[in-house]
Design goal:
4 helices, 8 strands, 42% helix
């Protein structure tokens, strides 16, 4: 089981939520934290997760989840509603990069994702979710590539790929049906020819007997 699947199972499923996206991150600037603040666990992995409740009306949350070294368990550290999100900064609107910032009402974090692709996918799903679920003011998405905020997006591309696959499958079935139809026609012609040949042969045989 992947780390993201395990997070969904351990952190969100028990509370009747489902995880929409997650990105593994590290801080771009290290915060000085006392030993007691981390519980003395040492190194850890951090994930920023986007989740939604299964029960209507839907509530969307952004959760910081950690996994400490030597432990297989995941721990929920901080959580905000999507309405508390004020700004998403993609850092560079002209190229893929793994850095991004999240600004909430009472917090500001500077992150670097495991890869530019992970960051782009997370921001795109976050933007799509905010457009659907933010009831009050929507967060600002600044310095983000246009492909992440609409147009030829990953979500649209995925939908287009599915549609294309269905169309190709339908076309293949139609072509196969046409080939089968032509084969059936040829078979019928052959059977008619064989039947006519048998009738002719029978008539010839009767004629010779006479």
């Amino acid at each position: 089981m992947s780390a993201k699947s395990a997070i969904n199972k351990e952190i969100f499923t028990p509370y009747n939520e489902k995880m929409l996206a997650a990105v593994q991150v590290k801080r771009r600037t290290k915060k000085k934290m006392p030993f007691l603040a981390t519980g003395g666990h040492g190194d850890y992995m951090t994930f920023i997760c986007l989740s939604v409740t299964n029960k209507k009306p839907s509530h969307v949350s952004i959760t910081k989840v950690k996994q400490f070294q030597g432990s297989s368990a995941f721990v929920k550290r901080s959580q905000w509603t999507v309405d508390q999100l004020r700004q998403v900064n993609g850092i560079d609107p002209n190229k893929d990069c793994p850095e991004f910032d999240l600004m909430f009402e009472n917090a500001f974090d500077q992150w670097v994702a495991g890869s530019a692709g992970e960051k782009c996918t997370f921001i795109q799903i976050l933007h799509h979710t905010c457009q659907r679920h933010c009831l009050a003011r929507k967060p600002d998405f600044v310095n983000c590539q246009s492909k992440l905020l609409g147009g030829n997006s990953i979500l649209h591309s995925a939908a287009d790929s599915v549609t294309s696959a269905v169309q190709k499958a339908s076309q293949a079935l139609n072509e196969r049906g046409e080939r089968l139809g032509r084969a059936e026609d040829r078979t019928a012609d052959m059977m008619n020819s064989a039947e006519q040949f048998a009738v002719t042969a029978h008539k010839l045989a009767m004629k010779h007997k006479c």
